[in-house]
Amino acid sequence: MINQKIITVVLPAYNAARTLEQTYAEIPFDIVDHVILVDDCSGDETIPIAKKLGIQHIILHKENRGYGGNQKSCYNKALELKSDIVVMLHPDYQYTPKLIHSMCFLLANDVYQVVFGSRILGKGALQGGMPLYKYVANRVLTLFQNILINQKLSEYHTGYRAFSKRVLENIAYELNSDDFIFDNQMIAQIFNEGYDIAEISCPTKYFKEASSINFKRSFIYGLGVLRVSLEYFLHKKKIKSSFYLKGKYHNEYLYPTAPGFIE
């Protein structure tokens, strides 16, 4: 805990057997109260390794629900555990868990309600081996997104994020896509509710075992990102409203025992 706030780290996992132990070993348990691993129907030894590590909260999707669907299960379980701060950390060891302290102190002291670990602040992305085409695409997409959303984030595509309980309870993340675009829809919801997002520089590692999407999926994702940004722009201009940006997040949307997974 920090300031009596319950801190939970969620690990959205898919075929993470080769990197899970290394990731878990660096989680700072001097402040972290719970770890939740959601396995999205992996084909490797992710679940046995999670059990060997002693992870208390393990959820197994009986069918692959996608990256967004995985996160929904993560956040639902974290709220069920009465978490005050929730850190989403990829178990592929691309992002260092050593930044959890810094991210959580900003939230625990009510400086911000959302904190992202940014690969683009500083030179972490290129030094860590991010492919040049991904770096360029990240910068171009981020430029267009900042213009349409009227913000100044260094990147919208990091997989290292920390949220206060207040944010997760006040955005309708269950209405978002189950695919990779979930992350950007969530950002749109956060800004739509009036929250600011802090960023801290995050060193990044790119290696064979780290999860990544191929060029085709990246291209489709890029188009989806532009669509979400345009939807947000039209929504704020009151030209066309997007359903996932409407209203507050209510308890009836919360499904901690949703069909499709076993615990």
From TrEMBL:
It comes from the Bacteria. The keyword Transferase applies. It comes from Marivirga lumbricoides. This is Glycosyl transferase family 2. Residues 8-171 form the Glycosyltransferase 2-like domain. Keywords: Transferase. One of its GO terms (molecular function) is transferase activity. The keyword Transferase applies. PANTHER family: RFBJ PROTEIN, UNDECAPRENYL-PHOSPHATE 4-DEOXY-4-FORMAMIDO-L-ARABINOSE TRANSFERASE-RELATED. InterPro entries: Glyco_trans_2-like, Glycosyltransferase_2, Nucleotide-diphossugar_trans.
